[in-house]
């Protein structure tokens, strides 16, 4: 849908430039009072307009499809889980632990999801902790576009170019804090990475079926509207090495946003940055009792989709946690436009948001108690919460990618289980 482009929001530039002394603090900019007032009014109007148009563009998943969203099950276990256990190790950039995490992601897709492409985005930088040494940072981008999207466009109506694809962009950082030594970062953010692996494998077969069906019906490529793809970013170097500043933080995401802003390609979108339909960032997830606010008025409609998925999954009995005292993971679906402030949490979305990308930030406020302590390890994860987040995110992505009717009834193909088993055994050696 080409009109999606209007969703990219004209005010986000106003949120840039916030500074903070640590990743905990809230970045707040101070436009003049009048300007802020006008921006707010405008934001309210546009928000209402968009809420009206996007509501029509989205068909909610049926209950049958929702019930087919697989649980991550034992694969998300902290000790034995094939998706999570191998990365519950220190993953400081440039170290062996970091490489092991990279291999985990690359092997997972290569073995189990070969239709996803892997694009490395490598950079180097000095850090205040490492002096003149250049530290390597490596982002991994796994992408699945419709099969008729061809790198070399020009073969006529039967193909589309990479620049014609609007990509739902799911992100988590895989690096861990440099100090304290031995810091694992289970909620920060090994568990979110594992959740994204689960999302990818859970939608893969349905994507194939949907695109096959579109082709069979002669609806692909569309030619007039943008195509819909999905990509998963495992970002490196989110953490500060000494203390959080604009230059000591977000090493991987800053470099990636810059590269994507300046890489031009043919198609509806002239850069990979413009091709991001929504930047969905997961962080600090896996501790019990999370409360994730809706941070941005301009993407509140997407937050509402996510909250609705949670609520419907709970009603269906598909989640394991109790929403205690009517306190779901996502409690702000009814937040009103005038209730939004300019506060947000500094994280990997910032370099993208500053460049006008729409952001949905899935991070709890307050942060989990274990935040940036040695207690942020596998033992302190709440397994039902980890599994429920994976389920909720999968439902959200399946809905976004319009997979209703294409989700297979069997939760996990047999070969996944076999792969998961060998992988666990291998990593135990
Ligand atoms: C990027 O770095 C990783 C190791 O960190 C390496 O395996 C990979 O081949 C590099 N890729 C490119 C394209 O340079």
Automatic annotation (TrEMBL):
Composition-biased stretches (Low complexity): 20-29
Pfam family, any one: Peptidase_M28
Name of this chain's protein: Peptide hydrolase
Superkingdom of origin organism: Eukaryota
Gene Ontology annotations of biological process type: proteolysis
Keyword Protease: yes
Keywords, alphabetical: Acyltransferase, Hydrolase, Membrane, Metal-binding, Protease, Transferase, Transmembrane, Transmembrane helix, Zinc
Gene Ontology molecular functions: glutaminyl-peptide cyclotransferase activity; peptidase activity; zinc ion binding
Annotated region described as Disordered, given as residue ranges: 1-29
Signal sequence, renumbered to the chain: none
Annotated transmembrane regions: 39-59
Entry EC number(s): 3.4.-.-
CDD domains in the record: M28_QC_like
Domain Peptidase M28: 166-396
Keyword match DNA damage: no
Alphabetized Gene3D superfamilies for the sequence: Zn peptidases
Family, as annotated: Belongs to the peptidase M28 family.
């Amino acid at each position: 849908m080409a009109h999606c482009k209007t969703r990219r929001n004209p005010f986000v530039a106003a949120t840039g430039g916030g500074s903070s002394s640590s990743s905990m603090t809230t970045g707040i900019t101070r436009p003049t009072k009048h300007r802020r007032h006008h921006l707010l009014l405008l934001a309210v109007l546009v928000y209402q307009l968009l809420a009206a148009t996007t509501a029509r563009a989205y068909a909610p998943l049926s209950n049958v499809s929702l019930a087919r969203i697989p649980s991550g099950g034992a694969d998300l276990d902290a000790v034995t889980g094939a998706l999570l256990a191998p990365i519950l190790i220190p993953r400081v950039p440039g170290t062996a632990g970091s490489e092991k995490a990279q291999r985990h992601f690359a092997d997972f897709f290569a073995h189990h999801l070969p239709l996803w492409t892997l694009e490395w985005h490598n950079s180097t930088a000095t850090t205040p902790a490492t002096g003149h040494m250049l530290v390597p940072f490596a982002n991994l981008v796994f992408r699945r576009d419709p099969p008729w999207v061809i790198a070399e466009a020009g073969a006529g109506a039967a193909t589309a170019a990479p620049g014609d694809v609007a990509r739902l962009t799911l992100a988590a950082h895989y690096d861990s804090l440099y100090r304290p030594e031995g810091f694992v970062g289970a909620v920060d953010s090994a568990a979110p990475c594992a959740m994204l692996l689960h999302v990818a494998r859970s939608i893969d077969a349905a994507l194939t079926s949907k695109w096959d069906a579109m082709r069979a019906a002669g609806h692909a490529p569309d030619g007039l509207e943008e195509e819909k793809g999905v990509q998963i970013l495992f970002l490196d170097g989110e953490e500060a090495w000494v203390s959080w500043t604009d230059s000591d933080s977000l090493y991987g995401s800053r470099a990636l946003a810059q590269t994507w802003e300046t890489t031009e390609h043919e198609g509806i979108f002239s850069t990979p940055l413009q091709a991001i339909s929504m930047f969905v960032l997961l962080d600090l997830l896996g501790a019990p009792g999370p409360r994730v606010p809706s941070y941005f008025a301009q993407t509140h409609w997407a937050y509402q989709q996510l909250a609705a998925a949670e609520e419907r999954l709970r009603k269906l009995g598909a989640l394991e946690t109790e929403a205690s005292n009517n306190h779901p993971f996502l409690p702000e679906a009814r937040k009103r436009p005038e209730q939004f402030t300019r506060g947000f949490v500094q994280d990997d979305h910032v370099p993208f948001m500053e460049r006008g990308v729409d952001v949905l930030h899935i991070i709890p406020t307050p942060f989990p108690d274990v935040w940036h302590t040695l207690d942020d390890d596998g033992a302190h994860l709440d397994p039902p919460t980890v599994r429920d987040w994976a389920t909720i995110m999968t439902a959200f992505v399946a809905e976004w990618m319009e997979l209703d009717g294409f989700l297979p009834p069997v939760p996990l193909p047999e070969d996944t289980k076999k792969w998961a088993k060998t992988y666990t055994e291998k990593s135990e050696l």
